[in-house]
Amino acid sequence: MLQELSRLEVDNVPVAETWRRLERDARAQLVDVRTKAEWQFVGVPDLAPIGRTVILIEWQTYPQGTTNPDFVERCAEALRKASAGPDTDVFFLCRSGARSLSAARAMADHGFARCHNIAEGFEGPLDGLRHRAAQGWKAAGLPWVQG
To answer: What are residue 44's DSSP bridge partners?
Structure first.
């Protein structure tokens, strides 16, 4: 029952709205759940313009692709260190919005009641030509840096 309730609480937020909410709310946090390889070779969101940093914790390990068994504990600790609590808006980001939704649901189950999934992700879903980058954080022109 608790899992079903948290699934209802995790909403999908467009990248531009995520940026606006991060700008307006100094307590809001961004958690990038992609892999270390993605951070290094694809890039990471840059929150320096608003005086913050992104929390980087893999939801799935690379190259195995298995769910990180320490994700919830590591994420909760990182959020606490960032002064985030159960009432803090926490935005979860992955490549296209699937892994981040799972991570957001896991953290909602852990008691963080204001978890949000960044629906388009960092690079967006595949387009008709099986390319990425037509949607997402990068395509929206939001700040990012090469890892």
So the answer is: 145
* Strand ranges for the chain from DSSP E: 11-13, 29-32, 44-45, 55-56, 90-93, 115-118, 144-145
**pTM score, whole prediction:** 0.91
The answer to whether the beta carbons of residues 147 and 42 sit under 8 Å apart is: yes
Beta-sheet strand order (sheet of 11-13): 11-13, 115-118, 90-93, 29-32, 55-56
User: Are 32 and 95 a contacting pair, CB within 8 Å?
Assistant: no
pLDDT tens by residue, the chain, 147 residues: 344 444 447 999 999 999 999 999 999 999 999 999 999 999 999 999 999 999 999 999 888 889 999 999 999 999 999 999 999 999 999 999 899 999 999 999 999 999 999 999 999 887 778 777 778 999 999 999 997
d(CA 36, CA 70): 15
Which domains does the chain show, CATH number per domain?
A: 2-145 (3.40.250.10)
